[in-house]
Amino acid sequence: MKIIESPQEMQRQVEAWRLDGKTIGFVPTMGALHQGHLELVRRTRKENSIVVTSIFVNPTQFRPGEDYEKYPRVFERDCALLQSNNCDVAFAPTKDAMYPAGATTFVEVGVLGETLEGEIRPGHFRGVATIVAKLFNLVRAHRAYFGEKDFQQLKVIEAMTRDLNFEIEIVPCPTIRESDGLALSSRNAYLSSQEREAAPAIFRALSAAQKLATRGESNVEILRDAMHEILANEPRLQPEYSVVVNAQTLEPIEKLTHKKPARALIAARAGSTRLIDNAALELTSF
Amino acid sequence: MKIIESPQEMQRQVEAWRLDGKTIGFVPTMGALHQGHLELVRRTRKENSIVVTSIFVNPTQFRPGEDYEKYPRVFERDCALLQSNNCDVAFAPTKDAMYPAGATTFVEVGVLGETLEGEIRPGHFRGVATIVAKLFNLVRAHRAYFGEKDFQQLKVIEAMTRDLNFEIEIVPCPTIRESDGLALSSRNAYLSSQEREAAPAIFRALSAAQKLATRGESNVEILRDAMHEILANEPRLQPEYSVVVNAQTLEPIEKLTHKKPARALIAARAGSTRLIDNAALELTSF
């Protein structure tokens, strides 16, 4: 596996591959790789001739006081994991190479980035959209792979890709979970054992809403109540939101229908760690 | 010459050319082509194997009450001019194809877009940066050609290209002028004969500042006074700004130096028509 640090070298390498007729698959990450990331890498490996994974802790998507400084950085370990999953290139630019002094341009995604996570973390999706636009221009891939665990991020990136006419296919990939349902996340490393014990309540709440929908319950208030109750029974979690929204627009809905896909999303704190998760709601009627 | 309306077809066509090893030169325009545009096309023709000119009156860079509706649209004439200048493709997408319902993403360029034109036309450069980012993704050219007449626009696009890592060379091209110095602009068509007579005072003011600099005058106040005086002597023009700025940052300066390029910029109204122009200031010392 090749490690590329220079944005210009990355661009040149991709251009050479493209001229050579190769298809390029791209997995953007902030490192601290877990099986969720590696599953993206393995899928990318299957569907493309070249696999590029970026490792870059993006400062512009963190707010002051968030965990940018303490975000886990384990570059050597990440590279070993990528290598053993047959990644071709780890693209690991420096902060200064990505944001040189004087850089002022940002990509704003509008309403999709202002709700839910965007309300709690203003500017977060501006940072996400900007770094992903930059990475798309550096790693001119044919396909980019994103986990559904960060569902709003996925929607923001889909919108940005469509609105700015990036010629790349966004491939959403299912969330990978621990056996008790906790969604894999680099931030799980922050959890104390007490917090780790409490965390799966989020998945249980989502599953409860999912089960109600499967049984034909279309009234979103009932689904929300079911989620709230489960979360309320876990005092070691402080819920920030637990909502049911239109899966495309992320706008709140009151009724599930067969036509418009819906999604349940939860954010909760366990101590000082924020956890997010989500699930598709599919209404079954009899 | 081929006329392409579909963004997807444009993208496919360029990809085919790139795989074929062609170099692509791009001239983005809003149509109503004049010799300034055609000079860009001719230069693009010389420096690239394929020439693409886009014709799209971009709604997002006009403010309510500006001239979006009445902006001259002469598509057949434009195509004839492009054809006779050996352009390969006129890319003319519809407004709905470029901004389908639900599009929410914008490119914000920051401070560079907030001064001068950006102060008078808030949101203008947001619209410019967004459409150019979109066009860069649709017409994946190796080089894009912009006239220096819209100097701030050129700087905004250079910043956007650099900050978002677009792999394209921005080629600035000198302003083309009438024999009396008036910079060519599609908006000159709006001028009454009285206004047309008054308009070259802008060029005379810029030339006066230029001449002072050439003679060694580094005091910007003196250069500004010279411009003001000439503009004040033309009552048919209403000046909006006439400034001397750092040519990279567009920040006001007080002294010309040999190290940092400076630029004089003027905006003035002739009746209801806004005219802008600018000139490089080169300090000569003895």
Task: Draw up the topology in text.
The structure is a homodimer of 286-residue chains.
Chain A: E1 2-4, H1 7-19, E2 24-29, H2 35-47, E3 50-55, H3 75-84, E4 89-91, H4 95-98, E5 106-108, H5 117-120, H6 124-138, E6 143-147, H7 151-163, E7 169-173, H8 193-198, H9 201-214, H10 220-232, E8 238-246, E9 262-270, E10 273-281
Parallel strand pairs in A: 1-4, 2-3, 2-6, 3-4, 6-7
Antiparallel strand pairs in A: 8-9, 9-10
Number of domains of chain A: 2
Helix content of chain A: 25-40%
Largest sheet of chain A: 6 strands, parallel
CATH architecture of the largest domain in chain A: 3-Layer(aba) Sandwich
Going across the biggest sheet of chain A, name each strand in turn.
1-4-3-2-6-7
CATH superfamily of the largest domain in chain A, please? HUPs
Number of strand elements of chain A: 10
What would you call the shape of chain A? globular
- Biggest interface between protein chains, with counts per chain? A-B, 31 and 31 residues
H/E order of the elements of chain A? EHEHEHEHEHHEHEHHHEEE
Structure, described:
2 copies of one chain form a homodimer. Helices cover 37% and strands 20% of the residues of chain A. With 286 residues, chain A is of the alpha/beta class. Chain A has 2 domains: 172 residues, HUPs (Rossmann fold, 3-Layer(aba) Sandwich), CATH 3.40.50; 91 residues, Pantoate-beta-alanine ligase, C-terminal domain (Pantoate--beta-alanine Ligase, Chain: A,domain 2), CATH 3.30.1300. In chain A, the strands form 2 sheets. In chain A, strands 1-4-3-2-6-7 form a 6-stranded parallel sheet, sandwiched between helices. In chain A, strands 8-9-10 form a 3-stranded antiparallel sheet. In chain A, α7 links the parallel β6 and β7. The first copy, chain A, is globular. Chain A starts with a strand and ends in a 5-residue tail after the last strand. At the A-B interface, α1, β5, α6 and α7 of A face α1, β5, α6 and α7 of B.
